[in-house]
Amino acid sequence: MSEKLKKADQYNDPSFNYMSYWDGRQYEHRAEVMAINRLLRGKHFKKAVDIGGGYGRLTSLLCDFADSVTLAEPSQQQLDLAKKHLADYPDIMRKLMQADKLEFADSSVDLIMMVRVMHHLPDPRPELKEIRRVLTDDGVAIIEVANYMHARNRIKHFISRQPFPTEPVDIRTNKNQSDSLPFVNHNPYTVMKQLKEAGLKVDRILSVSNLRSPTLKKLLPASAMLAFEGVLQPTLSKTFFGPSVFFLVKK
User: Fold this and answer.
1) Which has the closest alpha carbon to 134: 66, 198, 211?
2) Which of 34, 75, 129, 203 is the most buried (most CB within 10 A)?
3) pTM to 2 decimals?
4) 136 near 110, Cβ under 8 Å?
5) Can you say whether residue 238 is alpha, beta or left, with left for phi > 0 and alpha for psi between -120 and 50 degrees?
6) Does position 52 have pLDDT exceeding 60, yes or no?
C-alpha cells in the first residue's frame, strides 16, 4: 500500500469524528452551500460526482442539478457515515476510490465537485489530470482551494515585506506532520497554472467564507454574516480575499 493510501486511513480512525468537526461551523457550511448553488444555478447535468465528499455533507446538493449522483470517497468510515447522513437520498451511490484514480470512463461525468480536498494535496496535478480525463467536453467541475493569499496573510506579508510563496504551505504543527495527512494552503495563482497545465480553464471564481472569524461569529447573527457573504463572494473573487476559493472550471 502506498504512503498516500496509508495516510488516508486518518479518516478511518474511529477516534476521528469528521462530523463533529463541523459543530460550530454552520457559517462556513452555509457559505459553501451558497457558493455551490451560485455556480450551478440554471444548470442541469446527467451524471455528477462528489470527489472526497466525506460523509456527504454537500453531496445531496448535487441532486438539484443532476440526474445521477455519486459520492466518491477514499475512507470506508466516511462512506458508512454517509449511508446514515444521506438516508433521505437513497439514489446517491457511494463508491470507495481515490481522487487520483477515479474509476470512471473517459469523458463520462459532466459535473464534478471537489471541496476541502485540495488542502490535503501538496501536489494536486495527478488529481486534476484525472478530473480532466473523466469530465465530458461540455461538463464543469467545482474545485475548492484552501487559499494562502487570504486577507490576514496579505497583511502579514505586507508588514514583513516577504513575497507570497508559490508552493503550498503546510500549516500543520511540527508534531502533527509525522502522523497526519498533509494540510496545506495553496497560492491560487499556482493552482490556476496547474489547472491550465491539466487542460482545464477557469470559468468563474468565488471568494468564500470571507467573514470567517470567531470574533465576528460572536458579534453578528448568522443571518447577517450570510447576507454580507452573499455580496462578498463575487465582489472579492479576483482579490482572493477569503480563506477559501471556489473555481468553476471546464475543459
Assistant:
1) 198
2) 75
3) 0.94
4) yes
5) alpha
6) yes
In 65-151, the DSSP E strands lie at: 66-73, 93-96, 109-114, 135-146
Residues 6 or more apart in contact with residue 242 via CB below 8 angstroms: 147, 150, 151, 207, 208, 209, 210, 212, 232, 233, 236
Secondary element (H or E) of residue 226? helix 222-235
Tell me the CA distances in angstroms from 193 to 21, 97, 145, 167, 200, one per residue in order.
32, 26, 13, 12, 9
Output the nine-digit C-alpha cell for 21: 468537526
CA distance 208 to 144: 9
Domain of 175, CATH number, reads 3.40.50.150
Q: Is the pLDDT of residue 4 over 60?
A: no
**90's grid cell:** 437513497
Is the pLDDT reported for residue 7 higher than 60? Answer: no
Task: Give the model confidence (pLDDT) of 193-210 as tens digits.
Answer: 999 999 999 999 999 999
Mean pLDDT of 71-92: 96
Question: By the 8 A CB rule, do 78 and 18 touch?
Answer: yes
Rounded CA-CA distance 188/166 in Å is 9
Residue 1 binned pLDDT confidence (cut-offs 50, 70, 90):
very low
- Would you state the cell numbers that stand for residue 171, as one nine-digit string? 500549516
Domain of 245 in residue numbering reads as: 3-250
Nearest partner of 7 among 186, 221, 172, judged by Cα = 172
AA letter at 17: N
Number of folded domains in the chain?
Answer: 1
